[in-house]
Design a protein that fits this description.
single chain; two-stranded parallel sheet; two-stranded antiparallel sheet; globular
């Protein structure tokens, strides 16, 4: 039998509660503007994010956090109380992202096909329209919460950042010359540190170099 791909697993898994949750968030919070087949979004796509970004971001946010001190399990369903906790916290987090970050607010305003040209235009202008950056923001928000911030105030600060490609804060951290997003786990981690720094987290002298 052919092994189930990671993308297919997210779509069909009934044992991985984060996969189940991500599907619900894709349909409800993100109004189905989610690519469930790929890790990336093409420039002309109607989508705002990917199912894998919702999944990765949700696990990043909950796992070993003030909300849930253990690692998130993905191979069996947690008890009902844990499911309820993950669900309410993860839904709140993504909802705040979509209501706090101006380009995302604009992107979801009209979820019909009529809104596609607006989403395409926003994706050309703002790095936060890229799933890899959305997950990096979740990682940065988690750092802020670990440092004592509330979720709401961390997102309010994030809403004031300049998310445009042309903002020099992102040069060679998120964006290479030619306005190409830098992919990869290490880059994403570094970007999350820079976002957290822009949100007010102290970086060590070594990190500032």
């Amino acid at each position: 039998a052919k092994a189930v791909s990671k993308a297919d697993n997210l779509i069909i898994s009934e044992d991985d509660y984060m996969a189940i949750l991500s599907r619900g968030i894709a349909n409800d919070t993100f109004k189905s503007l989610v690519n469930s087949k790929s890790n990336t979004i093409s420039d002309k796509s109607n989508d705002i994010t990917t199912l894998s970004a919702l999944y990765e971001g949700s696990i990043e946010y909950i796992s070993e956090s003030p909300i849930y001190p253990a690692k998130v399990t993905t191979d069996f369903l947690p008890d009902l109380a844990t499911q309820a906790l993950w669900k309410s916290e993860v839904e709140k987090m993504w909802d705040l992202m979509l209501t706090s970050i101006p380009p995302l607010v604009d992107a979801i305003k009209d979820p019909s096909d009529e809104g596609q040209s607006k989403r395409v235009e926003l994706r050309e202008t703002y790095i936060i329209m890229k799933p890899v950056v959305q997950v990096a923001l979740v990682m940065a928000i988690k750092r802020m919460i670990d440092a004592g911030s509330s979720l709401k105030s961390a997102f309010q600060k994030a809403g004031k950042l300049d998310w445009r490609f042309e903002c020099t804060d992102w040069d060679r951290v998120a964006v290479n010359p030619g306005e190409k997003i830098i992919a990869g786990k290490q880059s994403q981690k570094l970007l999350s540190r820079i976002i957290a720094y822009r949100l007010g987290e102290e970086l060590t002298a070594k990190e500032l170099k």
